[in-house]
Design a protein that fits this description.
Layout lengths: L2 E4 L9 H10 L4 E7 L11 H7 L6 E7 L7 H6 L4 E5 L6 H10 L3 E6 L17 E5 L14 H14 L5 E5 L7 H7 L3 E4 L1 H4 L3 H15 L1
Parallel strand pairs: 1-8, 2-3, 3-4, 4-5, 5-6, 6-7, 7-8
Bound molecules: ribulose-5-phosphate (5RP) and cobalt (II) ion.
The site of cobalt (II) ion has 6 residues, from strand 2.
Amino acid sequence: MLKLSPSVLSADFGHLAEDIQIIDQAGSEYIHLDVMDGSFVPNISFGAPVIKSVRPVSDKVFDVHLMIDEPVRFLQDYKNCGADIVTVHAEACKHLHRTIAAIKELGMKAGVALNPATPLSVLDYVLEDVDMILIMSVNPGFGGQKFIPSSLRKITETRALLNSRGLQTDIQVDGGVTLSNVAEIIQAGANVLVAGSAVFKGDKVENVKAFHKIFSEIQ
Ligand SMILES: O=C(CO)[C@H](O)[C@H](O)COP(=O)(O)O
Ligand SMILES: [Co+2]
């Protein structure tokens, strides 16, 4: 099933709760929350206290994308603030296997994100343990960037690898996803689509509806 995960990085932070309610009521399946530490990525966004404060306004899946060094140090905080899925970057973890296990021990779903230059092979020995693979289609740190074309081949290869092992793991794509390119991203094998500026710029409800219209034409 195809799922839309609007990234609140492009929301109005002064009205974050209202913006989340709007995309929830428009039918978004997930809410994507981008946590940035100013070290792993050259930007700082928000952390667990902000997520905790907006958790009561939506029952949707809170899909937390941690762009922070050594996220294993903070997993309990993300459990406590109500995260459902926690995605860590392979590049940010000294012990990726241990970090995935710790997320699952806390009762959350575990995602692993790969930067555009990171090969798929880093997932070889953890593939069976991961609930979601996040293919970054921009270099992480900022919203509103352009989709990197080589990401399409990476998505295709990720789906082929999963198929070859009999796995139906979710493939999430994040960065530069728009109404114009989402169909080919799905055709390549992605099923969880993050969109920040393409949802929050303009009419949020119409944008969510437009993504879902494309989804219904494909599935
Ligand atoms: O993880 C991210 C940036 O690091 C964001 O989720 C992503 O950039 C979404 O924004 P947009 O759809 O505007 O590219
Ligand atoms: Co993200």
